[in-house]
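Sample entry (344 residues):
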Amino acid sequence: MRIVLIGAPGSGKGTQAKKLVAKYGVPQISTGDLLRAAVAAQTPLGLEAKAAMDAGQLVSDPIVLGMMEERLNDNDTQKGFILDGFPRNLPQAAALDTILNRMGRPLQSAILINVDFDLLIQRIAGRRTCKSCGQMYNIYTSPPKMDGHCDLCGGTLHHRADDNEDTISNRLRVFEMQTEPMVRHYQIQGKLTSIDGSDEIDRIFARLCKAIEQSTLSNLEIVRLKKTPKSPPSKVETFEKTTKLEQKAKELLNTTETNPEVPPLQSSSGAIKEATTMAVKKKARKNAAKKKVVKKKTTAKKKAVRKKSAKKKAVKKKASKKKVAKKKVVKKKGRKKKSVKKKA
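Predicted structure, serialized as tokens:
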């Protein structure tokens, strides 16, 4: 599991990260711990970070990212890791993606713990931390059994000086402004899961574990689909695709050669679209012209047929008149022959 926990100060992401470490056996990595360890070890990056902090400046992103890359290369992160409070903004998130992709271990899930600002202020103002073991308490929601002392090791509990209401409100505004673009970044990647963090610690943890398991299963399915080889297209499909492409190309070339209004084909998709639309319009005009010609021919043929039928009727009438005239002449000749016989 390779996850990022996102949450405002007081959202409980540190507490939840420790519980995840106990359950899944992967390390929790936070920028605060990295900086303290690097400064204590006096590494080159640790010395640069110490110089910036001593000057009252923020530690730059290149220093933090360098420390993060060194930590992610350690052997205990091979099975996974939990990033607590990092990345804080969009540039850090993009740089982290680059580092993890280069390692061949991309991020699996980014989980946002949502808590109302009023509750966050109460949580931060009442927060107490053990100086010895780092165990966290809250005098309002989860107080220690002995006031001012840790239940685990008996160490003294510490209240940070900047955990006052004015400072907290300012920190929450800065967090919201910086985190919003980063949240959208993970949402676009399909890696963001949001859970309600205003409940009891154990209930929040149950939701968190469910979100992690679901994201892990979905990532395994994506990997399986990527590894499954796609069946190559058949020869018939390949032939049909190539012939269709050739026909389209010929049509586009013909339209550009015959029609001066159409500009010559260019490599850009806009020019190709323009050429295809002109070709379609030209074909539509030709089809419309053909339809008109066909209609004219059919109407002319109908008129010619009507004229021919009228001529046939006239011919029939003439023929009938001639037959009647011939019959009358024949009858008269017969009468003359009879008169000749009588004279003999």
